[in-house]
Amino acid sequence: MLKSLLIAGSLSLLAVGCVKQDSAPEGLDRAIPTADQVSIKLPANSMRSVGQLANWYVATRDVTRTFNGGTAWVLILIHTIVQFPVTSVDGDVYTWGPWSGALDPAEYKLDVTALGDGTFDYRLSGRSKTVAGSQFEVVINGHADPRPGELQGNGMFMVDFDASRRVNPVDAGDAKGAMTANYDLAAKHLDLAIASTDANGTPVSADYAYDETATGGEMNLDFQGDSGGGPALENATLHSRWLTNGSGRADARITGGDLHTTEVTASECWNTMFGRSYYTDSANFAPSEGDAASCAFATADLP
Q1: Is 159 helix (H, G, I), strand (E, B) or coil?
Q2: Dist. CA 289–CA 93, nearest whole Å
Q3: For 66-100, what is each residue's pLDDT tens digit?
Q4: Alpha carbon distances (Å) from 57 to 42, 157, 166
Q5: pTM of the full predicted structure?
Q6: What are the backbone angles phi and psi of residue 249, rounded to the nearest 5°?
């Protein structure tokens, strides 16, 4: 949807800009964070030694791609739209659009409300052009709270993937459910919650928390999944930590499901080339290997 929105929005907003020349509310551009500010910074290197990539490094990297991709297109889109003249103003509500390309199956509009305390609410809405009588429904909504000083601020935004598919099934992709992101730029902290369904229609959810540190970063991931042994889903918590040189450690706790009252813990470390340097678990799911002394973080740390 991003490609369609950016192209359609750029062309159509240029057109409406010739008619209306209202300015966006002061401070809006600074209030909304950039995609780089709201991103998980995990080292990645295409050059690596021959051997097994650490499984939990791969899992950690996949999570960062999910978060970064899900947040980046939202923020790039909003930042792109607010660079153009406002289409209309109604009190404290500033509207861009509605607009779409001639061949686009949907049209969109962005509404920004300037609140009295200096914060902003924003909503990107869309409606299908292929279904008669379609009404606008919110695809993205957010709140931006700027604070004094450069690179500071906090806020949240939610992406409704189901709504985006109803509005524009051609460009919406395969994502289902909703994603909610919360950020605090001063604290360099991010949270992401996913609510969706699997291929069988079973509800699934996951929660991520990320903190950027002076020497790297760390992330907690809570989710449900099948660790084997039966059909029931287990609850898993994965705590990953890494250094700027790429080396890191992940510690996991697995409970519930087919494990019943048993709790399983596991640890895996990887080196600067992202190859596994150490692994162990309390249930012998896989053979222990490597040397714990090789770990970038000497001890296990589970929330």
Answers
A1: strand
A2: 60
A3: 667 766 777 777 888 888 889 999 999 999 999 88
A4: 10, 27, 35
A5: 0.77
A6: -145, 145
